[in-house]
Write a structure and sequence with these properties.
Blueprint lengths: L1 E3 L8 E4 L6 E5 L5 E7 L2 E2 L5 H4 L12 E2 L10 E4 L2 E4 L12 E4 L5 E7 L12 E10 L2 E10 L8 E3 L2 E2 L2 E3 L7 E3 L4 E4 L4 E4 H5 L7 E4 L5 E5 L4 E7 L5 E5 L6 E7 L5 H4 L4 E3 L4 E12 L1
Antiparallel strand pairs: 1-2, 2-3, 3-4, 4-5, 6-14, 7-8, 9-10, 10-11, 11-12, 12-25, 13-24, 15-23, 16-20, 17-18, 17-19, 19-22, 20-21, 21-25, 22-23
Protein name: Galactose mutarotase
InterPro entries: Aldose_1/G6P_1-epimerase, Gal_mutarotase_sf_dom, GH-type_carb-bd
């Protein structure tokens, strides 16, 4: 497998499996953003290149990384014993430059983000966040590792982690989601809801969270394929988001709900000097 750096004016790195032809495109300088995943000759991810070209606009597409929070906090502020820190929706990882390197086994790439003067005003912890992206047969496996680099006796590092993949679909009106529980939490009304009611409104725009119950299948009959998210605890909550008329559906693994670092619900803690690993896998099959 080969990792090619950007050429010309393009900011995209490309990692290719010569045997299958599958590939990843990544822009580490823009939040470690995976901008493309070609699998079986088809692009799996939706990506708004025109919007991406304007750094003043938020990204719509690819796989943004949500860290150290998913969603937002009350007043967009993280309250800790160390003080109060401004923290925007979905955190800062998606806005900072990462580094990139091939994995030693040659089966993927490693993206790395370290604390810096850019992160510390929002999150007063010494940390390393690594994402390992591995191309597998008809699949993409993602492993995240959070290391608390604080000295002995330092406070544990609190966080939530999520991924925000934009899955390209051919016809949102015909898309089916299989494997979700009957009940969910609607982020638009901030109230419990019936999952079936949410799924009936994908074309109108939805944003809801479900507890993990195993793999979730996104069936796109018009596109002729199924994309399956296989989440793993503790990143086993699933968020579904649509933004019509964009031809995509976000199928997102989260470790905690909105406000977790404030309420404590499913908040993850990493003691000083230790690390925690999370992961998920996306697979593709044709209909």
């Amino acid at each position: 497998m080969t990792l090619h750096p950007p050429t010309g004016a393009s900011p995209h790195w490309r990692f290719t499996d010569p045997a299958s032809g599958d590939s990843l495109t990544v822009v580490p300088e823009r939040g470690g953003l995976v901008t493309g995943w070609c699998c079986g000759g088809s692009e799996i991810l939706y990506f708004d290149a025109e919007r991406f070209a304007d750094p003043a606009k938020s990204v719509r597409g690819g796989i943004p990384v949500l860290f150290p929070i998913c969603g937002n906090l009350p007043g967009d502020e993280l309250v800790l014993p160390q003080g109060r820190f401004p923290l925007p929706q979905h955190g800062f990882a998606r806005d900072l430059p990462w580094s990139i390197a091939p994995l030693p086994a040659g089966d993927g790439v490693r993206l790395r983000l370290e604390d810096s003067p850019l992160s510390r005003p929002h999150f007063p912890f010494a940390f390393v966040l690594e994402l390992e992206l591995r191309l597998q047969p008809s699949a993409l496996a993602i492993t995240a590792r959070i290391n608390n680099r604080g000295e002995a006796g330092a406070a544990p590092l609190p966080f939530s982690l999520g991924l925000h993949p934009y899955i390209a679909v051919a016809d949102l009106a015909r898309v089916r989601l299989e494997g979700l529980p009957a009940d969910c939490f609607d982020h638009l009304s901030m109230a419990p809801a019936a999952t079936a009611d949410q799924l009936s409104r994908l074309e109108q725009g939805v944003d809801f969270l479900c507890s993990g119950q195993g793999p979730v299948r996104l069936v796109d009959p018009a596109g002729g394929r199924v994309v399956t998210l296989s989440p793993s605890a503790p990143m086993d909550l699933v968020v579904v988001w649509s933004d019509p008329p964009r031809p995509m559906l976000c199928l997102e693994p989260w470790s905690g709900p909105r406000g977790a670092l404030s309420t404590g619900e499913r908040r993850l803690l990493v003691p000083a000097g230790e690390s925690l690993e999370l992961g998920c896998r996306y697979s593709v099959e044709t209909l």
